[in-house]
Write the structure tokens for this entry.
Amino acid sequence: MAIDLENEKGIAFLLPNSKADYPIEHFAVSIDKIEEITGIDFYANLDEDLESKLEAQKNTKDWIK
């Protein structure tokens, strides 16, 4: 899971606990999804509007080159 406050982007990955035969992009999910699964609000200290924007993203184009 990662956020980039300067560029206002966020991403998370949910991988199986086994060998993965797919590229990492296949496992991209939103931070919201990870929070839903774990019940943890990871970025509770961020401004609510920014937190909502970052946590909803899962665009790999900005992260994987």
Summary: The mean pLDDT is 93. The chain is about 25% helix and 15% strand. The CA atoms of residues 35 and 64 lie 22 Å apart.
